[in-house]
Amino acid sequence: MIPFDFQKATTANEAIAAAQAGGRFIAGGTTLIDLMREEVEKPERLVDINSLPLAYIRPEGDDLVIGALARMSEVAAHADVVRLQPLLSETLLEGASPQLRNVASIGGNLLQRARCPYFRMLDAPCNKRAPGSGCAAIDGVNAGHAVLGTSDACVAAHPSDLAVSLVALGATLQVSGPDGDRTLSVEDLYRLPGETPHLEHTLAHGELIIEIRVPSGRYARRARYLKVRDRSSYEFAVVSAAAALDIDGGIIRSARIACGGVGTKPWRMRASEQALVGRRPDRVAFEQAAQAALDGVRPLSHNRHKVELLPRTIARALEMAGEVA
Amino acid sequence: MGQNPHSRAVDEHETASLPPVDHFDFSRSGVPLVSGAAVAATTVTSRATKAASGPSRGAAVAVQLKINGVVRNLSIDPRQSILDVLRETLDLTGTKKGCNQGACGACTVLIDGKRVNSCLTLAVMHEGADITTIEGLAQGDELHPLQAAFIEHEGFQCGYCTSGQIMSGVGCIAEGHAHSPEEIQSWMSGNICRCGAYPGIVAAIGDAAGRI
Lengths: 325, 212
What we know:
heterodimer, A: about 325 residues, 4-stranded antiparallel sheet, globular, B: about 210 residues, 6 helices, about 15% strand
């Protein structure tokens, strides 16, 4: 690991100023330390933000508010989360391992870096790590890569489960930075790779995630997360789906669907959502709606199976959501 | 040692003069490269060159940690993980380095009562933390119930993952996630055993959960 300076920030303003001066925020560090050891990440200064008072979890009116420094395990087990947004609890427990969940922060989870093996491999070309060097995954081992939102420069799938469910639920972020505070949707936090895959998010230099706000909705109760993967726990998704249904009088009033493992960012399936409105919640409706998720899909040499798996995962997740009493 | 270890404070400031912690290195795949002195010597040289490019960068930080009840005042290279401090600075080698990237769980310890991968967290981030390692579980000659259960149920073969399995198992039981074999399997999935001693591990944790 390349030497770096270490600074502990005690206020958000102090942290933001340190980041503006070139520092890099560290919370749980489970992604960053790993990548620093590989010398993929080479910060000259780390700004430890763990002393900031941002580990809260609380209902505010009908919303659920989660501080950026709450740990994955704390959020998953929190009574208000289980009561108001059970989808988030289920999603968090499908991610990482118990040890990692005890350390990884919610803000850091959203900003975790790509899991493309070539991103970590210093002797392979990677436009995300070394802009302009090329993409080894496009013609390489790409079974785990994205089929939606890819470009000729990058095909890495976004790794976060939590982000998928937050996008489905229409969650927003409160961020604070050198130019003040602002709010943006979790969906708008992420960029498509395009020609600039090294730019993964829309936060400005020095901006810090303060909290996540999850709005209440009639679909919050019937909401499930299905993660299809190579082993039954502690593995990234091949395909995952967060599905939520607002059913009234035996008719779907509205639906929320987002998917992981398939997109270069968490992928909201609006066409599938629309296709469900006014339908009865049955297998036929779910399968028809799920087909709409394939619009624009672009498989690679080793991940064509995701094209088949994606609608099946969505349909099953919708069934699971519909089965919630 | 006739004195109460809980009242003992050990000053480790002299460790700043020890060789850099990265005198053993890991390749990109996380495979140890400490097979020969020549490799180690090359590594030290390359690190020293990098360090020289920023004279003040990476200055040591004073950190106080409480490890198995003993307060330690340490001078820490910011790059040192908790795992490296335990093994290299304090010679507490019961905690094992497996993958060194958070994938295998061999380095699991309890920090402030929670199980974590000690390889993936920097010691400088844990000022004042209370850390329990495998060396801190037994009460004198009396094994912790989970240690005894691992022996009883043969929860290991080669033993390399065992201290991490036991520390993770202690966390799993404390969290209340050891009610059934299926629950234990899921909540112990952060600990890999390449010998495949999982049936014994799951049985030991289930057994100990009923006794703790």
